[in-house]
Specification:
The complex is a heterodimer of chains A (151) and B (401). Chain A has strands at 7-8, 23-27, 33-34, 52-56, 60-69, 87-93, 99-104, 118-129, 132-141. With 151 residues, chain A is mainly β. Chain A has a domain at 58-141: OB fold (Dihydrolipoamide Acetyltransferase, E2P) (Beta Barrel). A 5-stranded mixed beta barrel of chain A has the order 5-6-7-9-8. Chain A has a 3-stranded antiparallel β-sheet with strand order 3-2-4, with no helix packed on it. In chain A, a hairpin with a 5-residue loop joins strand 6 (87-93) and strand 7 (99-104). Chain A starts with 6 loop residues before the first strand and ends in a 10-residue tail after the last strand. Chain B has 2 domains: 10-122 and 218-237, 3-Layer(aba) Sandwich (Peroxisomal Thiolase, Chain A, domain 1); 135-208 and 241-400, Peroxisomal Thiolase, Chain A, domain 1 (3-Layer(aba) Sandwich), CATH 3.40.47. Helix content of chain B is 35%, strand content 17%. Chain B has a 9-stranded mixed β-sheet, sandwiched between helices. Chain B has a two-stranded antiparallel ribbon with strand order 5-6. In chain B, helix 3 crosses helix 13 and helix 6 (166-180) crosses helix 10. The longest helix of chain B has 17 residues, at 353-369. The chains are: A mainly beta (151), B alpha/beta (401). The interface between A and B is large, with 47 and 47 residues.
Chain lengths: 151, 401
């Protein structure tokens, strides 16, 4: 599948390119940051803000917890392959003070992370449909220099 | 001061269930079975019930499958006022709270609360169709995040932070299986060994299939009355509802919660002292004026084995990170210091969503009356229930003799 055909599985939730990042809504009144994007009334109960701008979230965070899906999830999940290949998931704590779920990067499993492991956001193919590759954000463990040979 | 009374108590006059299982019948018939059992248990005629509340049947958070009036019609229209509650796993408690409020307001004297469900096989999945603005749909589509996936996140955290092991989780199942052996309403009545759990397939690491509760058909019902009515009925010391907590979370909610993809931000507002689950129990204790040290037994929502351990801490039955110590010491087994899930819990029942919170109340009632044959917690005086479900719903009911 050509690069040109790769499109995010959902529009407006993350940037692509060499340094991809999640896109969040930031309340211009109180500074609360919401992901997935949310616009309307600020959900901080003490804030009457109604205006938001878009902000990129930190690309690195630490693992809050992690698991995997050893059985194929039911629809609307679209399996990337047949037969199904299990994938891992992590809830990642960002410096902004909240936790965002994501799959772990392709090739990584639960044995590669611990609570507290540093991870970085990457964009990879979630599945392929008739229009091409549909991409999604994923968390990739940060490896120190010298550890790359293990991968 | 658990024996003391206050003007906010209501009496549990009757409880009843339809056994949990896979029966292949319509859920209304389960509800009517449970309602009739509760009415028989109470000695109150259906014609005397002046308020009926139905717990809505749900599929993964989407309400709208049945109303309280469905049960009223099936029992035979009797002119009672009616209400319908939906609060995911807390549905039964919210329905109970509606009945309690109406009784305490003097607007009714006898209320019947019914919850019933028939549940599909396998993973609970969202409703069909493209639902790009629905987090419950998106978590499956974008991440393949199932319910056991969330349970597994909490379980893994216990392992990394507190040194819990998969054998600990399996031991919860072993304990609950033993508790439920003689429970006539339980679906699974079979001893399970740690090895059985460890040998079952891993669904979402670190949880095995036998760590995760099944989905079941089932129904539970409660007859609730004013204390005056109970007295006129000849009951001087009925089991009483002392508190019903149905609190919502406090912003920012910082524990990732099914079915969401993220938590609230703690950027502008510092997190509250208590997490959402901790606040559910705390509100019940505060309302009842009863503390965790007075609790004789707890019925908690063991959607997974590891979640039972979380609940023990969230209900302040022990310190954070200590639940495994109690488990290993046998403290949470019947006969121990604070038995947890003497009914056998969801491990033995499987989940029948709108009935489950009421089933917890039924069990605590039987325990407090000394009628929990084969699983009786000796000298049970105070029981607490707890559960949490989708979309900020959770509940805790505190009952005493």
């Amino acid at each position: 599948m050509s690069e040109a055909a790769a499109r995010p599985a959902i529009e407006g939730w993350f940037t692509t390119g060499p340094e991809p990042a999640l896109l969040a809504s930031r309340c211009t009144t109180c500074g609360s940051v919401f992901f997935p994007r949310y616009e309307g009334f600020c959900r901080n109960p003490g804030c009457d803000g109604e205006e938001f701008d878009v902000t990129e979230l930190s690309r690195r965070g630490t693992v809050w917890s992690y698991t995997d899906a050893q059985y194929q999830p039911p629809p609307p999940y679209v399996p990337a392959s047949d037969p199904y290949v299990p994938f891992a998931l992590a809830a990642v704590e960002l410096p902004e003070g909240f936790v965002v779920l994501g799959q772990l990067a392709s090739g990584y499993g639960v044995a590669d992370v611990r609570v507290g492991t540093e991870v970085e956001l990457v964009v990879e193919t979630l599945h392929t449909d008739e229009t091409g590759d549909r991409t999604i954000w994923r968390w990739k463990p940060v490896t120190e220099l010298g550890e790359e040979a293990d991968q | 001061m658990t024996g003391s009374s206050n003007d906010r108590d209501v009496a549990v006059l009757g409880v009843g269930m339809h056994p949990w299982g896979k029966w292949g019948k319509h859920f209304v018939s389960y509800g009517v079975h449970a309602a009739r059992a509760a009415l028989r248990d109470s000695g109150v005629a259906w014609e005397d019930v002046d308020f009926i509340v139905g717990g809505e049947t749900v599929r993964n958070g989407y309400g709208g499958y049945v109303a309280g009036a469905t049960f009223a019609q099936a029992l035979g229209w009797n002119g009672a006022r009616v209400a319908t509650s939906y609060a995911a796993c807390a549905t039964g408690a919210q329905a109970l709270d509606a009945a309690r409020a109406r009784i305490l307001a003097g607007l009714c004297e006898v209320a019947l609360v019914v919850g019933a469900d028939t549940t599909p096989k396998g993973f609970l999945a969202p409703n069909a169709g493209e639902r790009w603005d629905d987090p419950d749909w998106l978590r499956f589509r974008l991440l393949g995040m199932t319910n056991p996936g969330y349970f597994a996140l909490y379980a893994r955290r216990r392992m990394d932070l507190y040194g819990a092991t998969q054998e600990d989780f399996a031991s919860v199942k072993v304990k609950n299986a033993r508790h439920g052996l003689g429970n006539p309403n339980a679906r699974y009545r079979k001893e399970v060994t740690v090895q059985d759990v460890m040998d079952s397939a891993v669904v979402s690491d670190p949880l095995h299939l036998l760590d995760i509760c099944a989905t079941s058909d089932g129904a539970a019902a409660v007859v609730l009355t004013s204390m005056d009515y109970a007295k006129r009925h000849g009951l001087t010391s009925p089991v009483r509802v002392r508190a019903v907590s149905t609190v919502t979370p406090t912003f920012p909610q910082t524990v990732i919660d099914m079915p969401l993809l993220s938590t609230d931000p703690a950027t502008a507002v510092a997190p509250a002292e208590l997490t959402f689950k901790q606040s559910i129990g705390a509100a019940a204790y505060e309302e009842a004026g009863i503390g965790p040290e007075d609790v004789s037994l707890a019925e908690v929502y063991d959607l997974s084995t590891a979640l039972e351990l979380d609940w023990m801490e969230d209900l302040a039955l022990c310190q954070q990170g200590e639940a495994e110590h109690l488990l290993r010491a046998g403290d949470t087994t019947i006969g121990g210091r604070i038995p947890v899930n003497p009914s056998g819990g969801l491990a033995c029942f499987g989940e029948a969503v709108p009935a489950q919170a009421l089933a917890q109340v039924c069990e605590v009632t039987w325990q407090l009356r000394g009628q929990a044959q084969g699983r009786q917690v000796e000298n049970a005086r105070v029981g607490i229930t707890a559960n949490q479900g989708l979309f900020g719903h959770g509940s805790s009911v505190l009952l005493s003799r």
